[in-house]
Every structure is written in C-alpha cells, then in structure tokens.
Amino acid sequence: MGVPLGWLTRQQDLRLKVLAGRGSLDRDVVWAHSIELADPARWLNGGELVLTTGLRLTPDPAACRDYVARLTKAEVTAIGFGIGLSHEQVPEPLVEAAEEAGLPLLEVPLRTPFLAVTKAVMERLAQLQYEGLAQASRIQPRMTRAALHGGAQAVVRELAVSTRTSVVLLDHEGRARAAHPPGAGAVDGGRVTALAGAERATAAATCDQDGVTAVQQVRVGPRVHGRLLLMADRALTPVDHLLLGHAASLVALEAEKPLRLRDEQNHVNGLLLRLLLDGAVSAAVGREYLAEGGFPVRDGIRVLALRGGSPRLALEAVGTELAERGLPLFGRVYDSCAAVLLPAGHAATAQTVVDGARARLRPRLSAGLSAAHDLDDGSAALTEALNAASVARTRGGGEVVSFESLAGRLLVALPETRRVLATLAETRLAPLAAHDTAHGTDLLASLRAFLEHNGGWEAASAALGVHRHTLRSRMERVRGVLGADLDSAHVRAELLMALSAWQEPGEIGRRG
Q1: Is the model's pTM score more than 0.85?
Q2: What is the enclosing helix (H) or strand (E) of 167?
Q3: Which residues contact 374 (CB under 8 A, 6 or more apart)?
Q4: CB within 8 Å of 137: residues ≥ 6 apart
Q5: Under 8 Å between Cβ of 109 and 36
Q6: Are 339 and 382 in contact (CB under 8 A)?
C-alpha cells in the first residue's frame, strides 16, 4: 500500500512541480526519504520518493545520467529536487535523464520543507491504512453472513467480489471445490505448483508474469481441509491478505461442522458399544439403535481390534475410513487397544480399513478380527479380536489375523468350554501378567510368540523383534514364574489353550 504520486502532486500547499516522468504519476510512494549521497541506491528498498538538494550532484550530463540510472535500478518511485540551496534550478541534464528513463522528477520550492513532504506522505499512508481497516470491517460481516447462508461457495464469491480478484477453494487433494468467477476453477496448474512448497505453511504468495497468487491453508488445529487461492493481476494489499485469512477461517469452520457432529455421534456410539459388550443393553435395543445408525446387523457383528501406537488416534483413523465407506463408527478404547464394531458381512472390509488407517498414522498396527457373533455375544467377540490382535503382533506383517484362522478356535467359541478355558487362563497366566505389570517385562507376549511358532527360537524372536538369546532368557523367567516344564508338549498345549481365552484384567468395560 502506498500514496499515489499523482495525489501528492495535487496537494497545493506543497507547491510541487512535475518536471519529468509525467506519464508515471500513477506510481505509489511507500516512503519519503531525504538523502544527499552521490550514490544513495544501497540505502533504498524501492518505492521511495527520494528528496535531495543535489548537494553532491554536478550538472554534468554523465553524472546526472548515472544518478538517475542508479535510482531507477533501485526502483524508487520519484525524485523530489529541492531548489534554492545547492542549485537555484533543477539541472537541465537531470531533467533530460529522468525524462528519458521515465522516472518522475518533482521540483520542490525553497519554501516547502522536505519535512512537509514527508509528513504529507506519512499522514496519507496512515489514512489509507485506516480506510483499509474500515473497509475490511465492513466486508468481514458480509463474508460471515455469506458463510451462514451459502457455505463455502458464498464465502469464495464474497471474497472475490470484495477484493476484485479471482478466488479458488481447493480440497486437500488439490481439486477445485468452489471458484469465483466460475472460470477461475480451471486454475493454472503452474500457479499451484509454484506454491507446492508452501503446502505445509499457513500462508504463502508467489508472483509471475500472470500476476500474484496468495494461498492460505484452510485448517483447524492439525486438521487441514484444503487451500484458498486468491489471484490478482496487481500487487495485493494488506486488506486483501486480511480478508483472505478471514475467509479461510470461515471456510474451515464450515468444513468442521459435519466433522464435529460426527465426533459427537462417534462418542455416543462408543458409549453404546461399551454397554453392549458389558451386557447392560439388550440385543433387541442394541439392534434397533445400530439399524437406525446405518449399521447393518442382519448377519451379526464382528469386532476388529488394533494394537500399537495411540489407540485413540487409531480409532479416529478407522472412523474416517469407515465414513468413506458409508459405515458409522462404533469404537472404544480398551487399555492399550482400539476395538471397533463391524457388520459380520463386511469381513473383507477390515483389511482395507486397517490399511487406510496405517497409511494415515504410519504406526506399526497389529489387527485381529473376531468371528461372526450375535449381538448378545459381543463380549466373546471382543475377546477373540483382542487375542487375534495379540497373535498378529507376534507374527508381524500387515495382514489382519482372523480369529477363525487360529487353531483351537472352536473350543473358545463354545460357551461351555470357554468358561473352562477362562478359568484355566486365569490360573496359568495371571502370574505372568502380574510379573509383567510389576517389572515392566513382556513375558506374556514372549510366551505367545514362542508357542505360536512351535518353539522355534529364530522365528519367535524375529516376530518379537528381539535377539534369540533375549527370548531364551525370557523363557527361562517364564519357567520360573509358572513353575512349568515348557519342553512338555502337554504343558505347551495347555498354555496355548489358556492364551486363546486370555484377556487382560479390566479390558472389558474399561475405557482407556
């Protein structure tokens, strides 16, 4: 933002006279600077009105051309030459050099102090800034009303009209969601590419032969909804940038509305899942709620369990993946594990959902999927999923481990044997779990890996990501805690069956 040079020359009290460069009076003055150096260029930033009495300037034509050339290269707006001190008149060679270069040259009479010129520029700049803020204060309420009544498209239109620019809203994949004027949606890919490096920045701008492009991220906290581009064939003003930022905030809030509603719905759904798994809600009530929430229950349910990383972040990522597939999220955190309800007929969806969640989070997620169950058997489905996830962790790899693929699953699936195995698990494995809790060890997982890999030291240690000597040391401690002979096939079989029914104390019903 600057003071138009033409405006300054029209201020009669300054008595300025245009001697050269009359065709460039539309330039803006951003500062008025009095300087008497023979070569002032290194002290200038561009856009200045250079005020001088020519103290170190001779009327030599070569010296005048050199002086003008240096100021032109420094991109000053104009020269204000004070007469009556060093020079009675502005040197004619200086006038000729300025005219030839197209650089405005103003004569400043002796009775007009340079301070008066500087003061006029500063006061006009302050006035323009105030007018800009006043203009923004009038536009911002209009943009807010546009957001309330017309959403993102209305905000984009209001911003474009108010700033007399072209505006495009891009989603997080770079596709145009809204544009004004309508043709602005076909935004030149070169402009967007030029800003690609600013994708993680809050705001950026670039300038090329086509004009100026400013970009503002549309985000709330860590969640980025896209970018708002403002394109103009002129330099952008602070008001333009202010309005662009305001528009980006309005669009971000508009995009957050359905996500906030979804978050609240997911919270309610999680409460229902807890009640279902605790048996506090009847299957009939649960079936009715699930059906109203768009969850298919005709074929029963499965539970998907994920271990590794932050379980809450895993739930958010899985919820996003399910939403993209038209499924609601019914999920809870159980200690260090995320558990999600899936329709029984969507078993194949589990792998794609987990793959999508891994891509979003990039943690080492281990996933297990239960067999199909009726709604009144949700607790058993959760136990199966947690056990399958534990097996997945010992195996490594990215595949979702289905409980139905595990040996001995029929024993756990039958209510009668499940009760017996639960008692066996509590008797045999509780001491190991207590030791792990007290000493920060991982003996239970080590035992599972050892048994799952048929006592193979290399395969089991590789699955755990430890050296085989470390695993041997752990297994010696397991022998000591359990007082069991792990070389016995009968003991191994008993412990393997106990592991198939084991669940961590407090996992059911506890919120992480």
Answers
A1: no
A2: strand 166-171
A3: 283, 300, 301
A4: none
A5: no
A6: yes
Whose tokens are 């494995």? That residue is: 429
Distance CA 63, CA 38 (A): 9
| Residue type at 436 in one-letter notation | D
Cβ contact 51:58 at 8 Å: no
Extract the tokens encoding 478.
């397991």
Q: Tell me the three state secondary structure of residue 81.
A: strand
Strands 78-82 and 105-108: parallel
At 106, which helix (H) or strand (E)? strand 105-108
DSSP states of 335-370: TTEEEEEEEGGGHHHHHHHHHHHHHHH-S--EEEEP
The amino acid at 485: D
CA distance linking residue 84 with residue 478, whole number of Å: 102
Q: 92-131 b/e with 16+ CB inside 10 Å = b?
A: ebbbbbbbebebbbbbbeeebebebbbebbeebbeebeee
SS3 annotation, 235-288? CCCHHHHHHHHHHHHHHHHHHHHHHHHHHHHHHHHHHHHHHHHHCCCCHHHHHH
Point out the least confidently predicted range of 66-75, 137-146, 193-202: 193-202
pLDDT value of residue 300: 87
With H, G, I as helix, E, B as strand and everything else as coil, classify residue 421.
Answer: helix
Asked if residue 353 has pLDDT above 60, the reply is yes
Q: Which helix (H) or strand (E) holds 67?
A: helix 61-73
Cβ proximity of 210 and 227 under 8 Å: no
Distance CA 25, CA 3 (A): 11
Q: What is the pLDDT of residues 158-192, one digit of tens each?
A: 899 888 889 998 887 778 888 888 767 565 555 55
d(CA 29, CA 310): 56
Q: Is 297 exposed, middle or buried (0-12, 13-18, 19+ CB in 10 A)?
A: buried
